[in-house]
Predict the structure.
Amino acid sequence: MRHFLVMTAFAFIAATVFGTVARDTTKERVSYGLKVFGEFMVIGLALGWVLYFLPF
């Protein structure tokens, strides 16, 4: 559970920074930040699911 919380915190902070830096208007910043947050979460969960089955 701790890894999920750390991943969520990282995704939130990164999405906030990317949204603030990358877009001009507030509406664009919020929508881009939400998109980036969702992408971080989906990709992180997908990679975690795939790597779970690899024998290390």
About this structure: The chain has a mean pLDDT of 94. The radius of gyration is 14 Å.
